[in-house]
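Lab meeting, action items carried over

1. Structure of the two-component assembly. Owner: GW. Status: complete.
Input record:
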Amino acid sequence: MSKQVCTFYLENQIYGLYVLQVREVLRYQELTAIPLAPGPVRGLLNLRGSIVTTVDLRRRLGLPPNESDEPATNVVAQTATGLVSLLVDRIGDVVEVEADDMEPPPGALPEPIRSLIANVCKLPTGLLLILNLERAMELDAFPT
Amino acid sequence: MAPSITQHELQQQLVRELVVESMEYLDQFDQDLLSIENRTNDEETLHRIFRAIHTIKGSSGCLGLRELERMAHAGENLLSWHRDRAMTPGAETVRALFRFCDALRGLIRQLSNTPEAAQNVPLTAEHQQILADLNSLHQALKQEQLGTFKESAGGSYGLFADDPAPQPAPPVARATPVASGSDEPTAKSGVEAAVASDVAIRVAVSQLDILMDLVGELVLTRNQILGHTAALLNPGMAKSAQRLNLITSQLQENVMKTRMQAVGHVWNKFPRLVRDLSKELNKPVALVMEGSDTEIDRTLLEAIKDPLTHIVRNSIDHGIESPERRRAAQKTPQGEIKLRAFHDGGLVVIEVSDDGGGIDRERVLRKAIERGLISPDQANGMPDREVCGLIFAPGFSTAESVTNLSGRGVGMDVVKSNVERIGGAVVVESEPGRSTTVRLKIPLTLAIIPALLILAGGNRYAISQASLVELVRIDEEKAASAIEHIRGCPLYRLRGQLLPLLYLREQLGLSPDATGNALLLLVLEAEGRQFGMIVDDILDTEEIVVKPLGQELKSLSVCAGATILGDGRVALILDVLGMARRAGLLEDGRKKPAAEAGFAAVADTEVLLVHIGANRQVAVHLDSVARLEEIALDRIEWSGNSEVVQYRDSILPLIAVGSVLGVPPAGDARESGKIPVVVYSHEGAQYGLVVDRIVDIVRCAAAISPCANRPGILGSAVIAKRVTDFLDVPALVSVSGVVSYKSNSWGLF
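Predicted assembly:
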């Protein structure tokens, strides 16, 4: 059985979320900063009247900050409790992946990436890391 | 992988619908059963309650909820027996049916909590008992009827022993007048039901919330378009924009309306509550409801449900006296609880009044002193209004004994905090021996609150105006010396009282502001204590729509939510009270000046001494004084019958204290070309009290002897070796008859 995955890039590595989890993709948005918020939280954005928390996915995954001048893209995703927006470097294609191509994340992956990746998908062009959205949004332990 | 609805999900969904539907049926069932108990039922009532239970039985059977079905079935049997004979159930049956209704409700509530285990909610012993009661009642009725047949049919009994139902003639026992017309009402109500579903449909509240959000955004977009079209100078475009403007406003108004619900939805359960309580306490009580169609935002209605229930319980438990006492007080033995709802300005007022014994002043004071809420000195001469207010103090309860209804010391304080949380207010009025009225004032919608926008670290934040008392600006040159410290704790002297301070930047984890500009201080009040908060800048007031923050930010304790401002940007709503609580500012410290009136409050506080007329000395409580001014005579203008001056962008009405109190003017005061004025601010309006001379500010610990019948005067005391009258400023203002000019700015600086 195949599934559709919406892909995006961080540091030239390709990541993905299942399309059913993705609500929409937005260009750069003005954000309102939140003092004392957990570190990866970059601010709040106004999505047609709903207030959506925006999380810097690079910071969440322990990656270095983006040095390029290109503004980040917002991937707005649906979690069990509401909408969140993930800041990514740029958006990729929607790809079909087969269940047979999926593998659990290899133990050799460093933390925190290992626990935030649901599956590794072997695409002909490279490895696609599928994000565990719910776990990525557990931000309580983060210092501000 | 597209999620088609699975069997399991479908079942879940159906169970959810069953829960909603059945709860409505049971509410109706309760009301109908009450009318049967009171003998105010009509022939349709019996059909309706039968149909309610029949439907619940049917739906639960379809979904395989065997236990619920079994329960409903037992009730249905008993009801169908009565319905078939058009016989009104007797008192014992009604009691059993009430218990049955509660049991069904309990079972259904369990379903809504744990839909997974839906099929297997086991019946408890209590349920079994109710089942047995219903069955035995049913059997007894059958037997009773058999007995009548035995007599009429002579020796041929045994013929009907198995099934008495086919017997065509209805038995005589308490038949309702029209026994044969049972088909007609059923048909008619079928038509009514069909019509009802044609004119109204059920919409999920979340759907309405989405609509509200979208309309809010549409309004913002409209505002932007209107701005652009003004620059375009294109008549066609301007016309369309105008239309868009109109339609958007109407759309917004109507979407707001969809969220409104009649208070009757919450009141519906009170007849039953009152009945149960009055039975339990042996106090006959009648319930009167007025204005149950008054509409209010759904979320608010939900929020006042529990407080209202508590107040009604309290009224029956503590308010209404026992029938013996009522007779002794020459009242009707039956007490009365009256619920009233009506619109008043932008607010909805809900009153619960009882004709009971009222609030016993002495008992309340005694209790308050016992609990350490006030000192005996304070109790002495405390105005009735404040005595009534004491029942809202945490940990206060006057119930002599703890009943299982109330008297546990939690209650009215919770009512107060619940109501205040949604921006409402509670007041109690009592006429000793006659009545008590609890009045809730609720805003029309929760969604919109008045807020003050402030700046800190370059970001805008909103603070609810509910807790805001005043704004103070401390000039640059005074800024450095105005704030004093005790062991690092910043304090400010506000009209002689110490005010603990918080720096907002510090609270938000931002670097301190080092610009050395003028200090802007918000004076806030919570739990009867005042504190100050220093902010970078004060921007504006705005009506804001409160929106929740996502789950990811639940650990963020400084925010109470967020809102979208006019330019489409998001601003956080600060929980300033939470900040103060965490900083320990509310534990002890400056008590709120206990209202303007009140002898206890006047004793041992600072007062302003002024002279009126030639040499009469009058004292004004310093908390009533916003500012002292000298106003040039040529600035005085007239409006209506009173003198006014333009003051800080609004109109300040002047009240000549001397003429209100009947003191002859001194004569020479106006010769200097200037008059001294005490600016007094009350509920957003300002008044100028014209006096002849401002003398001094003194600390006064004198005992005030109250005086009767002098409007505008609280009492007299000896201050600075002279007999001094204490002004009751609010009373003075109302006696003077001067109209207020509400300023839309913040007034007090």
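2. GW to write a short summary for the group page. Key points so far: Chain A touches chain B through 34 residues (CB under 8 Å). Chain A has three helices and eleven strands.
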